[in-house]
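Tokens for chain A. Residues wanted.
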């Protein structure tokens, strides 16, 4: 059965199509948005992730408290609290990142609803021809036993603060990718911070255990 042939526009076609439509700058706060969400959801305000480090206190602060009687007991309790607190913070951060994705999607939806229909353009899908040709060449290259195909260093994508977009939907996609990339970096940074703190307390506990064993 014959397969359908998809036409992939080249860079010249993309440039011509983009030039034929007015090019507003699609970014939150730069082009108008509707006052209400077309989907009927409440407007999601922009929030910082800083609040993610605060977690509810589950213990009863008014209850009697017996502090650890030795440094070893204290250090073990600190390590246990560090584990529970860091897990709660990571959960908070994931919730905030999920919320931010929903906020970005909502902004794009409100931008699209605020624009006149003739200001919206249908963005061509697929790869540009030069990118497609390069990809096919790489895929059809014969195996070279002298080369190591294991990827040991993956280049991270770069997302400038303002990415030119041709439609609210393209802006939304770019912002989601940029936000998720930043979220992954923030989570990794927090995990590394917790690891360093834990190692310092573990080293202190090791010293105390060795001192007690003498």
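Reply:
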């Amino acid at each position: 059965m014959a397969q359908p042939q998809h036409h992939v526009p080249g860079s010249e076609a993309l440039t011509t199509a983009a030039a034929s439509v007015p090019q507003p700058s699609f970014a939150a706060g730069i082009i108008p948005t509707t006052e209400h969400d077309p989907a009927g959801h409440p407007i999601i305000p922009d929030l910082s992730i800083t609040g993610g480090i605060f977690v509810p206190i589950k213990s009863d602060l008014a209850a009697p408290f017996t502090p650890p009687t030795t440094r070893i007991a204290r250090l073990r309790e600190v390590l246990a609290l560090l584990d529970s607190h860091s897990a709660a913070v990571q959960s908070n951060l994931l919730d905030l990142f999920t919320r931010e994705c929903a906020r970005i999607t909502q902004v794009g939806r409100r931008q699209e609803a605020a624009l006149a229909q003739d200001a919206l353009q249908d963005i061509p899908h697929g790869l540009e021809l030069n990118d497609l040709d390069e990809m096919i060449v790489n895929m059809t290259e014969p195996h070279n036993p002298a080369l190591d195909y294991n990827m040991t260093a993956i280049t991270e994508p770069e997302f400038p603060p303002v990415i030119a977009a041709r439609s609210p939907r393209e802006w939304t996609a770019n912002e989601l990718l940029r936000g998720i990339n930043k979220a992954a970096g923030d989570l990794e940074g927090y995990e590394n911070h917790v690891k360093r703190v834990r190692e310092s307390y573990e080293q202190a506990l090791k010293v105390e255990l060795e001192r007690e064993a003498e």
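Residues 27-34+70-120+162-214 form one domain. The two ends are 81 Å apart (CA to CA).
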